[in-house]
TrEMBL record:
This is ATP-dependent 6-phosphofructokinase. Homotetramer. Belongs to the phosphofructokinase type A (PFKA) family. ATP-dependent PFK group I subfamily. Eukaryotic two domain clade 'E' sub-subfamily. The lineage of its organism: Eukaryota, Metazoa, Porifera, Calcarea, Calcaronea. It comes from Leucosolenia complicata. It is found in: Cytoplasm. The active site is at residue 152. Residues 1-366 are annotated as: N-terminal catalytic PFK domain 1. It comes from the Eukaryota. Residues 4-307 form the Phosphofructokinase domain. ATP binds at residues 11, 74-75, 104-107. Catalyzes the phosphorylation of D-fructose 6-phosphate to fructose 1,6-bisphosphate by ATP, the first committing step of glycolysis. Substrate binds at residues 150-152, 187, 194-196, 250, 278, 284-287. Mg(2+) binds at residue 105.
Length: 366
């Protein structure tokens, strides 16, 4: 029978478990054997107890849990060819030739490299005497399918990454909590949300909770923005609002690529307006807690499709990314998605925001 292995890698996110559950069950439904790899690529390189065959009921009651029940890690060894050769040996010894990776663009880049090197790695293992010619022949092709788990919504090839919606829910809960205390004291709050290269969480949460001002990396404000912001804040106070809310993405920068920190924003408001101003950095709270209905459902949908895609794949199939486009679950060439995502990051680093936004248009709000 066909053997499928699944791992989660990179930063954890809600929805990974829903995808994992659907993957396991759809693959078993199609009579495949399914292996779970614990602790991401670290488990793949280590083998042993980190790779365990799983059953239908092993993945019961995990859909709504945040994070990933099979663990995730950052793994230096897998970045080296020696590490990837160990990983290949661990798969061949179990007859696994189908691998599904749930992670961010780094993890998916690693998966693609692994698959490109696969036949070379098997040659080396054969020469070393770690595998025999029959094992090499049986496992001659590796099929890869990628799913994107990331709260940042920062990947091309899918309109929504798993976890972004749940993270928005956490942010809105925090804003609701802050709003009551802030208006009691007539304070201003600077809320810092995650998103190093992607302002999705900041922008969408700002829309959803009527923030006064929002700073994101994709759209650096023009010089003199501080004055405009303060004008906006004092206008809304004059109109009767008892608090102000400014949402800052952690990667926000100005026109000169200088980071705009929460501390800086607070300083400006205190100096120009004299407001009692506080900072809240949400940090890992955004990754925590229950998975939203939306992330559960898209986790199920992309997970089920990923199982079908990896089981259908043959020796000629290129790696695919299963994502959501216009509310349809679609397969796209994995490497093209990774390349586009990296091109967006490079454009942002180079200060070419117009181009970066245009390339990301599919996954961004319009
Ligand atoms: P994310 O997947 O969330 O972008 P990382 O970039 O940290 O997170 O990648 C997670 C893991 O994927 C790394 O620790 C490493 O094991 C593997 N990986 C990332 N990039 C590569 C690469 N270029 N080659 C091989 N492995 C990689």
């Amino acid at each position: 029978g066909k053997c499928v292995a699944i791992l989660t890698s990179g930063g954890d996110s809600q929805g990974m478990n829903a995808a994992l559950r659907a993957l396991v069950r759809m693959a078993i439904f199609h009579r495949a054997r399914v292996f779970l790899i614990y602790e991401g690529y670290h488990g793949l390189v280590t083998g042993g107890d980190c790779i365990r065959e799983t059953s239908w009921y092993d993945v019961s009651h995990i859909m709504g849990k945040g994070g990933t029940v099979i663990g995730t890690a950052r793994c230096k060894e897998f970045r080296e060819r020696d590490g990837r050769r160990k990983a290949a040996l661990n798969l061949v010894k179990r007859g696994i030739t189908k691998l599904v990776v749930i992670g961010g663009d780094g993890s998916l880049t690693g998966a693609n490299i692994f698959r490109e090197e696969w036949s070379g790695l098997l040659d080396e293992l054969c020469t070393l005497g770690d595998i025999d010619e029959q094992e090499q022949a049986v496992c001659s092709h590796l099929n890869i399918v990628g799913l994107v788990g990331s709260i940042d919504n920062d990947m091309c090839g899918t309109d929504m990454t798993l976890g972004a919606d749940s993270a928005l829910h956490r942010i809105l809960e925090a804003v609701d909590a802050i709003t009551s205390t802030a208006s009691s004291h007539q304070r201003s709050f600077v809320l810092e949300v995650m998103g190093r290269h992607c302002g999705y969480l900041a922008l969408v949460s700002a829309l959803a909770c009527m923030a006064d001002w929002c700073l994101i990396p994709e759209s650096p404000p023009t010089d003199g923005w501080e004055e405009k912001m303060c004008c906006q804040l004092s206008q809304s106070r004059k109109a009767g609002r008892r608090m102000n809310l400014i949402i800052v993405a952690e990667g926000a920068v100005d026109r000169h690529s200088k980071p705009i920190t929460s501390q800086y924003v607070k300083g400006v408001i205190e100096k120009e307006l004299g407001h009692d101003t506080r900072i809240t950095v949400l940090g890992h709270v955004q990754r925590g807690g229950a998975t939203s209905a939306y992330d559960r459902v898209i986790g199920c949908r992309v997970g089920a499709e990923a199982a079908i895609a990896v089981l259908e794949a043959d020796s000629t199939t290129e790696p695919v990314l299963v994502g959501l486009q216009g509310n349809k679950v679609v397969r796209s060439p994995l490497m093209e998605c990774v390349r586009k995502t990296q091109a967006v990051s490079s454009a942002m680093k180079a200060g070419d925001f117009k181009n970066a936004l245009a390339m990301r248009a599919g996954s961004f709000v319009r």
